[in-house]
Specification:
- With 501 residues, this protein is of the alpha/beta class.
- The protein folds into three domains: 204 residues, Aldehyde Dehydrogenase, Chain A, domain 1 (3-Layer(aba) Sandwich), CATH 3.40.605.10; 187 residues, 3-Layer(aba) Sandwich (Aldehyde Dehydrogenase, Chain A, domain 2); 25 residues, no CATH class.
- The chain has 17 helices and 22 strands.
- Strands 12-15-16-11-10-18-19 form a seven-stranded mixed sheet, with helices on both faces. Strands 7-6-5-8-9-21 form a six-stranded mixed sheet, with helices on both faces. The protein has a three-stranded antiparallel sheet with strand order 3-4-22, with no helix packed on it.
- Strand 10, helix 10 and strand 11 form a beta-alpha-beta unit.
């Protein structure tokens, strides 16, 4: 999603964050400009040289010390997330727990994934010993989102640090305190490398300054439109760019699926965090035999939930005020174009909250089916069979996550393999998000590149290939002094071998 802030905040030296639920001021933060960002990058680069020179085991120990500091301060971090986003404290605590899982995995597996590895050579290079190693890039810039201000940026931050890099983090201007707290906890846990993780605060101008600062790679989470703008800046200096740009995730429900499990997962995937989840559930395609039954079960569960700021509320307010109008526009346009509202409707929008909305018979070309709604709205459409469900799920410019509910797990996995999504869960929603070893990312308007897992570690490295000549070959083909007859014999031998294979 796009990060926005009033122009007045950009013109001043500071900006103030506010509670999404009450509008009350929370904290004042500096607007870091190009000079402040450049200083942060320069400082990080100095510290990074020593960090990269450490044995992998020492880096692992330092990162695990930071992980323990985060675990010790879990409730403080969760309260900060809750205050800035409006989500319930329990949801924020779960976000921190998932972050700890990923940070621990990255710290423990970096050496195995990135360490030097021998590579087999061929017949004509038998005299060479070949190997490759993944080397840290240097300083990585990370532009984080507001919906999961700890878990999402840490998918880049933690893995980049584990790979031997320094990081400069620019959190969303809606949730800067979370980013500041992450860096403070790192400095306290690993004081010898203070500045290895630095947080700069501000809005779009600060993000642009980071993109122009000379970082060795930039990892971005946000809307496709903003990603294109940031990527254009990176292109000026050929700065590598990784983008996670949201989704319009679909769920397929087959005739033999457990409808209770499917309904419970759909409601959670669509409504948790007020629907403000890039890989949340926005579209459901159920085969016609079970469509009505599934809708009834989803409505029953969703109608029991309500948003609010109290402890009993299922989810909180919309964090980004401007997103409320998008939700209202999508729901209103869908109903006007023939969709049926099974629960809620345009009247569900009561700023800063949006009550659950369940739609059906939504035209496939409606904005509610093609654009990212990013609110507590789910559309459940009937399809004739699984083939039609797969075709509709794939007919989107987004390709981030998806889910399949099916009575037979093998069949469910086969359906999952037909989906273009970068990550798919069978008989659960977002199951992949809690598995640190699995890479996460999408394609098309969902972005490109991967975080998490081994791919996430490699994403913040460059590969160096090395050959060491073990002995002088009988025929030195890479020499002007090789006799023509010897070269011809080598070519005939190679041709003969490859004709047989």
């Amino acid at each position: 999603m796009t990060d926005t802030t009033p122009d007045a905040a950009l013109r001043s030296g500071t900006f103030t964050t506010r509670s999404p639920a009450t509008g009350e001021p929370l904290t004042e933060h500096p607007v870091d400009g190009p000079e402040q960002v450049a200083r942060a990058v320069a400082r990080a680069r100095k510290v990074q040289a020593d960090w990269a020179a450490l044995p992998a085991a020492r880096r692992r120990d330092h990162l695990l010390r930071w992980k323990r500091a985060l675990a010790s301060g879990l409730h403080t971090v969760a309260r900060t997330i809750s205050e800035e986003t409006g989500k319930p404290v329990g949801d924020a605590e779960l976000e921190v727990v998932l972050t700890l899982e990923h940070l621990g995995w990255a710290a423990r597996h970096a050496d195995r994934v990135l360490g030097r590895r021998r590579v087999r050579t061929g017949l004509f290079t038998v005299h060479q010993r070949a190997s490759l190693v993944h080397r840290p890039l240097g300083v990585v810039g990370v532009i984080g989102p507001w919906n999961y201000p700890c878990y999402t940026p840490m998918g880049s931050v933690g893995y980049a640090l584990a790979a031997g890099n320094a990081v400069v983090l620019k959190p969303s201007e809606l949730t800067p305190a979370t980013g500041v707290l992450l860096a403070e906890l790192f400095d306290k846990a690993v004081p010898a490398y203070a500045g290895l993780l630095t947080t700069v605060t501000g809005a779009a101008a600060t993000g642009e300054a980071l993109a122009r600062s000379g970082v060795d790679k930039l990892a971005f989470t946000g809307s496709p439109g903003t990603a294109r703008k940031v990527m254009a800046v990176c292109a000026e200096t050929l700065t590598p760019f990784l983008a996670e740009c949201g989704g319009k995730d679909a769920v397929i429900v087959t005739a033999d699926a457990d409808l209770d499990d499917a309904a419970a997962a759909i409601v959670w995937g669509a409504l948790s965090n007020a629907g403000q989840t890039c890989a949340g559930v926005e579209r459901v395609y159920a085969v016609r035999e079970v469509h009505a039954d599934l809708c009834a079960r989803v409505v029953e569960r969703a109608s029991a939930l309500r948003p609010g700021a109290d402890d009993d509320a299922a989810y909180g307010p919309m964090t980004l005020p401007g997103q409320i109008s998008t939700v209202e526009r999508h729901v209103t346009a869908a109903v006007m174009s023939g969709a049926r509202s099974l629960l809620g409707g345009p009247e569900s929008v009561r700023e800063p909250y949006v009550a659950p909305v369940v739609l059906t018979d939504v035209p496939e070309d409606a904005a509610a089916m093609t654009e990212e709604t990013f609110g507590p709205v789910v559309a459940i459409n009937a399809v004739n069979d699984v083939d039609e469900a797969v075709a509709r799920a794939n007919d989107s410019r987004y390709a981030l996550g998806a889910a399949v509910f099916c009575g037979d797990r093998r069949t469910g996995a086969a359906i999952a393999a037909r989906l273009r999504a970068g990550a798919v869960s069978v008989n659960s929603v977002l199951g992949f998000a809690a598995v640190p070893a699995l890479p996460f990312g999408g394609s098309q308007d969902s972005g490109f590149g991967r975080i998490h897992g081994a791919e996430g570690l490699r994403a913040f490295t460059s590969v160096q290939s090395t050959t060491v000549q073990r002995f002088t070959p009988p025929i030195a083909l890479t020499s002007f002094e090789v006799p023509a007859a010897a070269r011809e014999r080598a070519v005939r031998l190679a041709r003969s071998l490859h004709l047989r294979r």
